[in-house]
Amino acid sequence: MTHWIVAPIILPALLAPLIVLAARYHIGIQRVFSVAGVVALIGLAAGLAWQVSDGSVIYYRLGDWAAPFGIVIVGDRLSTLMILLTSVLALFVLLYAIGSGWDDRGRHFHALFQFQLMGILGAFLTGDLFNLFVFFEVLLIASYGLMIHAGGNARLRAGIQYVLFNLIGSTLFLFALGAIYAETGTLNMADLAERVQLIAPEETVGIRVAAVLLLLVFAIKAALVPLHFWLPSSYAEAPAPVAALFAIMTKVGAYAIIRVYTMIFPPDLEVTAGLHDVWLLPAALVSLAIGMVGVLAARKLDRLVAFSVIGSMGMVMVAISLFSPAGIAAALYYIVHSTFAGAVLFMVSDLVRTGRGNVDLTTQAPMIGAVVTAGMFFAGAIAMAGLPPLSGFLGKLLVLDAAFDSDMMVWVWAIVLSSSLISILGFARAGSIVFWKAHSVEQSEEPVPDTNRPSTMSYVAVGGLFTLLSLHTVFAGQVHGYTTTIAAQLFAPDAYISTVLDTPGKLSKPQEGH
Known about the structure:
By secondary structure, this protein is mainly α.
């Protein structure tokens, strides 16, 4: 047992009230605390990822109560990858929020930001389904506060819609947990993995219902069609740095599906047979298609980016729904890519709003700082559309290759390729209206106010994320190799189960090539 694994949850949980109590009226001190906390989180996440890179599983028992009776925080290759991704993203989002002044347009931004990180990181690290629900609620409350930051009627309406839709998901989650506990007497993931296998075939009705309800809940979090209606308005109306951080929020749903449906309800389990291929894969393909059609039809740049997030989640879910080691490895590679690409585009959309005055794609207007912003938009569009040479292209190739042996291979290839073409057209249309046609509009002779000039730190934050995208491309072989080892560990969960339950006689590490 190691105490370090709980530090990524404890640190933001302590920083948030400290910021409120000690620096409530001093934005400069808030910024220092917040940035220092995120930098420390990156160090912790990197150390934990290195510690489990050999395939070991680390855990922490809260109150020293052994599983399945106590709360367990667990770290393996998958969870540490996700907390490292979240921490790195959070740093650049925070820099953008400070540089653009978004953090000073309302109250308690940095405290809510830390609570949001606590909820996300806790969801990735928990080894218990009930505590997954608890962390979902923590990030829901914090994300609502961040979404309505700086006020506005449109933002408030979108926030209410977001909360109501996610409260429905929370209610379904509670029903699912009740059904699972009634059938098995436990909510610990490792314990469930063993007990579900022991349910007699004639007594599986309750657990089947619970498995379907869980899939619906996680599909809501992942914005999977037809449960995606909350996302476009919520992300488009949220402050830009908040929307950029939300790029990791949908990945929480994808992570939960990967974790639960490889360990508790694996593909070869008769109880849930058909969930991943009969229902999940078609829904993922429809999500991909609708997301990219939305990119082409969007009338505002921020909504265009929101629909591209739906499309990218459709791509992730296509890979996940294959439920093969190759599919999961491809999904994890694409998750890293789409998180950075989505955050870049949300920030660029805000740069356009700052320099242009609006993000309307139905009108032409002069653009301040058009050259640099246009270059960043062009790079982000290439990444999200999946064009070479960036990692989106490589990620799509990995997904297509993983689907080669699927019965729906033709549908996967057709929809992935056609949706990529549609997204290219949508991004090209938006770029030509915002940047190229901006030169045909007469520029004002009056001096430009400083409020319409994006700050240098804003460009640094966007450039930093694009640098990470470039590194993700350059080291694609090494990253995909690591995601392949993650997939192998997921499909051989003996090490996870034996470590959490502290049962002797099982593998302490997954066998290579298992």
